[in-house]
């Protein structure tokens, strides 16, 4: 009888130790998962959604992207050569922090890299005096003629539009030489693919290298939306928008854009 009681006690203790071990392993696994997720979103990949039409037809309003934050990670350190980093190239689509206000994330295409000389004549972009082939560009034939955006940079300050950022208006002429915009070191000149409906580098200046977050690589989800759906940035507005999307998920999803690469 004593042996049976002893065995029962040992079994109970064993179960408690097993439950304790299982709980500890679960907590440890959860912590590791959270740490890896935080590491991934901080250094490797991050989700981003398109709120405007400036990159159509390459990227549509409502496209949800995965942004590779690792590809442009090099800063000239000795170990960079052992990692799959590369420099930002002309033609890359980048996500970056807007230079002003509360620094929201923007997405545009790189047109000029450090040292480039950029000029636009009747909507044709020239880089280092050579016409730039841009098969991705969309022009709206109904859009009114833009003397500033279609022929850039301006020849004198009197041609600056009211839509030009004041900080850029003060310095743009100092960046112009012989009718070309000179891209300074560690900066990039960017424009939207939807050229006639893009508020881009023409109107507010250069993108600092330190402001570049990464390069979009994949559309993991796309929902039929308009820019108006993203104007309310309050918590309640976002919650209402999310609820509406979930309620109409099958109908609003653009299934043909799922898992499409970004180029």
How does this model look, in words?
By secondary structure, this protein is of the alpha+beta class. The chain has two domains: 1-44; 50-261, Umud Fragment, subunit A (Ribbon). Helices cover 27% and strands 23% of the residues. Strands 1, 2, 3, 4, 10, 11, 12 and 13 form an eight-stranded antiparallel beta sheet that branches. Strands 7-6-5-9-8 form a five-stranded antiparallel beta sheet, with no helix packed on it. The longest helix has 43 residues, at 2-44. The model is unreliable at 5-10, 17-21 and 26-42 (pLDDT under 50).
What's the SSE blueprint?
Elements: H1 2-44, E1 45-49, E2 63-68, E3 93-97, E4 105-112, E5 117-121, E6 124-127, E7 130-131, H2 166-171, E8 176-177, E9 180-182, E10 187-191, H3 201-204, E11 207-208, E12 212-222, H4 235-247, H5 249-252, E13 260-261
Antiparallel strand pairs: 1-2, 2-12, 3-4, 3-12, 4-10, 5-6, 5-9, 6-7, 8-9, 10-11, 12-13
